[in-house]
Write a structure and sequence with these properties.
There is one protein chain. The protein has 2 domains: 219 residues, no CATH class; 131 residues, Roll (CBS-domain), CATH 3.10.580. The protein is elongated and about 80 Å long. A hairpin with a 2-residue loop joins β2 and β3. The chain is 60% helix and 12% strand. It has 13 helices and 7 strands. The strands form 3 sheets. A 3-stranded mixed beta sheet has the order 1-2-3, with helices on both faces. By secondary structure, it is of the alpha+beta class.
């Protein structure tokens, strides 16, 4: 549905730790326990996705961790709705309620089929008792998100409170710092009490807080960079009346992957090198206007890079955004050159700071 699903590398690696908990002959039970954990995460994030759709939020990606998924929104409006007003409370309650409801349903089914099973025998989660673990993994994940540690659900509500008085960037950093502190405390408690699940919870809260903190830092950087600072000003254009053979010749002598198509000063389309080559192979020579894309967005020189990145990644599949001043194309920004431009801009700013210091 246009949402990119990512899995953090430590999530699948957790299966090997659960293999160890199952013992040398109990690896199938360790694998089953891992599958139950995946099911608990799936219950939580399916509920959150349904609520997000109900609220009209647009998602770009979900990063899955054993503590649940981290949402990346496709536009600022969705992020604002998810972090303020009644929407934040509905979204925060969806995951815990789904997990606790699934735990009650599983407990009812298990006790109905096997009334002699005691669900309250310690340890609650272990490879030795998979049915009991099935219930308590759901309970554990649901109750975990009631802790005031960012990026857990309750921690997100605390961040929303900070944001109303101190701004989003400060609130995100403060909440991430609180989350990391509580995560470290949970890891120490898990080691002292020899409770692996408390340790795992603290470890993955720490990972989630760091991921969120890096995202906020990146956002704060790109929102201070203007398009005029990173756009390519030395670029080639094509005309809609150019033949594909002429366009291919231009591609041979250019490092560009994508080209603005202009008629006089007016931008009328975008075409890629690959599209030109495919059309020549399949249909023979024709005109650029027959293969160019007329679906494009433009940026202005004073637009922030953050706004442009959201356009590039908002699900439109745009490889290039022309930068226009009036009707004239004055630069281009593409995924291909963006990281290089950012790196060079960072070095330029560093040199300027040194010169000012001298």
């Amino acid at each position: 549905m246009g949402v990119e699903i990512r899995v953090h590398v430590f999530f699948p690696l957790l299966v090997f730790v659960l293999f160890a908990l199952g013992g040398p002959d109990g690896w199938p039970r360790g694998l089953a326990l891992f599958i139950f954990l995946v099911a608990a995460v799936a219950v939580r994030d399916t509920a959150r996705l349904l609520v997000a759709a109900w609220l009209g939020l647009r998602l770009r990606a979900i990063l899955l961790l054993p503590i649940g998924g981290l949402f990346a929104y496709a536009n600022p409006e969705s992020q604002e709705i998810a972090g303020s007003g009644s929407g934040q409370y509905v979204l925060a309650l969806a995951g815990p309620l789904a997990n606790l409801g699934a735990a009650l349903a599983a407990a009812g089914i298990i006790l109905g089929a096997s009334p002699s099973l005691n669900l309250f025998t310690y340890p609650f989660i272990s490879p030795a008792s998979l049915l009991r673990s099935l219930v308590w993994l759901q309970v554990f994940l649901g109750l975990l998100h009631l802790l005031p540690a960012y990026p857990l659900d309750c921690g997100r509500l605390i961040r929303g409170g900070f944001a109303r008085t101190r701004g989003f960037a400060y609130a995100a950093r403060a909440a991430a710092g609180l989350g990391q502190g509580l995560a470290l405390a949970a890891m120490l408690a898990g080691m002292l009490l020899r409770e692996p699940w408390i340790f795992f919870a603290g470890f993955f809260i720490m990972i989630g807080a760091q991921v969120e903190d890096q995202g906020v830092f990146f956002q704060s950087v790109v929102d201070t960079v203007r398009m005029s600072e990173v756009m390519l000003t030395d670029f080639a254009t094509l005309s809609p009346s150019d033949t594909l053979a002429d366009a291919l010749y231009r591609c041979v002598h250019s490092l560009q992957e994508d080209f603005p198509v202009v008629r006089g000063p007016q931008l009328v389309g975008i075409v890629s090198r690959q599209r030109i080559m495919d059309a020549l192979r399949n249909d023979g020579n024709a005109y650029v206007q027959s293969v160019m894309s007329r679906a494009f967005q433009v940026a202005r020189p004073d637009d922030t890079l953050g706004a442009t990145i959201r356009r590039l990644t908002a699900g439109h599949g745009l490889p290039l955004i022309p930068v226009t001043d009036g009707d004239r194309v004055v630069g281009i920004v593409s995924v291909q050159n963006l990281m290089s431009s950012m790196s060079l801009l960072s070095e330029q700013r560093r040199i300027e700071r040194q010169e000012q210091g001298n």
